[in-house]
Amino acid sequence: MVEKTSDTGFSAPLFVQEMASYLLDHHIKDQLQAVNAGYREKALAVKDGIERCLGPYLEEKRGGSAGFYYYLTFRDIETHPRSPFFQFLTRTTGNPAVDGEKGNRLPRVIYIPGDYCVHPRGDFAERGKRQLRLSYGFEEVPQILRALELMREGAEHVKETSKLEASVR
Q1: Which of 9, 20, 82, 105 could form a disulfide with 91 if both were Cys (CB 3.0 to 4.6 A apart)?
Q2: Tens-place pLDDT, residues 94-127
Q3: Which pLDDT tens digit goes with each residue over 37-61?
């Protein structure tokens, strides 16, 4: 990118380059340490929230040591867009008690369903239906912890719905 910028004549003015050089030479180490420590603290807080809110429902939890994601595999709760869990969290169940009134939806949670991350006919297709990727890089910890509480409510909703459906059969 530097080469392309210089080649096209859009390089930064010399004083901006000097300021960047000074910051990199004198302050980047402390800044990187502070940022890394902050993300580590955030990762641990989210890990604790995951264990507290979703622990009983999980088969596996990965992540939190590099990057900004946790990868969760549920024991028996599906997470794909057609699943009751996803519909509860996106408030698309069709039930106003769960979704809220039209135009005034209850709080929602967005995640990347695992079935988007695997080949639909591959070896991990079935497992992918019970997985999700949770990002913690940009949102603040209190909001992430609230999202995890909503996910717990979603898991409880799925379990209660399953019990009711089983008793009707």
Answers
A1: 105
A2: 999 999 998 899 999 999 999 888 888 899 989 9
A3: 888 999 999 999 999 999 999 999 9
Copy the structure tokens of residue 119: 């080949």
Instruction: Give the number of other Cβ atoms within 10 Å of residue 153's Cβ.
Output: 17
Q: What is the DSSP string of 42-106?
A: HHHHHHHHHHHHHGGGEEEEEESSSTTEEEEEESS---STTSHHHHHHHT-SS-HHHHEETTEEP
CB 113 within 8 A of CB 94: no
In angstroms, the Cα distances linking 115 to 81, 91, 137 are 9, 20, 22
Contact 59, 77 (CB under 8 A): no
* Of 98, 49, 58, 103, nearest in space to 76 by CA: 58
Q: Are 148 and 98 in contact (CB under 8 A)?
A: no
pTM confidence score: 0.80
33-36 own/partner pairs: CB under 8 Å, 24+ apart: none
Per-residue DSSP letter, 120: T
Bridge partner list, 58: 74
